[in-house]
Protein 1
Amino acid sequence: MLVGLRHLNRPMIIQWKKRKRSKNNPYACQNVNVFEGDTYLVSYPKSGNTWLRFLIANLLARNPKEVSLSGLEKVVPDVYRNTNEELALLPRPRVLKSHESFAPKYKKVIYVVRDPRDVAVSYYHHLIKSRKIEEGYPLQDWIEEFVQGRYVPQFGTWKQNVGSWVGARQGDEDFLLISYEQLLDNGLEVLKRISAFLELKVSIEKIKEAILLSSADRMRKIEAQENWQPSLGDMRSDKRFVRSAKSGGWKEELSPKSADLIFQNWGDLMQSLGYLE
């Protein structure tokens, strides 16, 4: 059973029938219908959006132990995996996941940013899992592709996506910028800010419980138990979606040349966000 936003009395969705996308009923994507009160969890891909969705689902749940990865679409759905028709069935106010660059129609936004060097490494492994690149494809070659934004041109490069939101909305009371690193290092304070932003009436004990139940170890166990896949398509089951879930892993995997390439292209924005060489 789910606890609602604001007044904590949103009705539960009893049935959720997943429909196959068709030309007449496409997924919402950038054409999502925005309703008053919506909050959008936005990030560049592989920046911690799924983890934040899981944390918020645990905050909303009356029985957090029942929260699952496969059930996220019922609580904090992805605009790229649901039609507008399906999203309209959700109780309001809604919390939705998106990766779009600055979208003026998104009035209330929580934006998650992550060190692009870690994003690049995580994205590389994700593309192997989703069979978009072959095992053994040189990581250095992928970094060159990543910097140019070739794999997700609809979302731009990391700098274009992050910079569009920070430049347009930073300082706006309806825009909350948080970092993956802050969530790792000081999850309690960050979730307190998120809860206040969402106008959730939750106790400190509830927030602490949500953090414990959203640990990387527990999410990995749930992923294995459910055989959960993060997106549609033929994905490799021998590769985990929830990997190391840490900050600074790029230092172990990226060559100095690859790390320098990212910093040379995006160093100004990285430094403004606290990501130093």
Note: The chain has twelve helices and four strands.
Protein 2
Amino acid sequence: ASTVSRQAAELVRDGLLRREADPEDGRASLMALTEAGHEHVQAMFARRRTFFSQVVRDWETEDLLAFQAYLRRFVDDVESAYTDAGPPATDPTSTPRQEVLA
């Protein structure tokens, strides 16, 4: 909690977030993106899109479509695993399929 509070305070100080009173709990604050915060996030997304476009610029369309399908499947399965059981409580290197991931 202290780490999150410290990071949030820095973002408020930098003008990227603003604190708002929680209407349901006067002791709590809600955080909202400022216009500068929104612009920062959009710029970050644009840089990421540009970077990944450069990474795959020489890939064939067929390869891009296959990667997209596998990535979507992977993300969906990760989300499902977290929803069903929460994050892994054991050492991920001890999984039965570790030789595939190594």
Note: The beta strands are 17-21, 29-33.
